[in-house]
């Protein structure tokens, strides 16, 4: 139901919608939904994180590096490094942290 909630909230949202799918003592799995053109502004990860694209296409920006990720692509996000994500298409991503 969580992914359906994200899809419903995206219909009226002007920014990405994120929700926890699963949490444990030392890990977290998040789902993030984007409409085309939405930006997840610059921020930092405070735990080792991996971004998985399960639908759509996004650009991951870290400093001068820009990486386009499509369905089934993944990227490691370093701890304490500023980065951002922009949706090139309606997209759904998973983030694992821990």
Which descriptor suits the 3D outline?
A: globular
User: SSE order in H/E notation?
Assistant: HEEEEEEEEE
How is the quaternary structure best described? single chain
Q: Which sheet architecture does the biggest sheet show?
A: 5 strands, antiparallel
Layout of helices and strands:
Blueprint: H1 2-10, E1 17-23, E2 28-34, E3 39-43, E4 49-55, E5 57-62, E6 65-70, E7 74-77, E8 83-87, E9 91-97
Antiparallel strand pairs: 1-2, 2-9, 3-8, 4-7, 4-9, 5-6, 5-8
Can you tell me about this structure?
It is a single chain. With 98 residues, the protein is mainly beta. The chain has one domain (2-97): Jelly Rolls, CATH 2.60.120. Helix content is 9%, strand content 55%. It contains one helix and nine strands. The strands form two sheets. Strands 1-2-9-4-7 form a five-stranded antiparallel β-sheet. The chain has a four-stranded antiparallel β-sheet with strand order 3-8-5-6, with no helix packed on it. The model has no long low-confidence stretch (mean pLDDT 97).
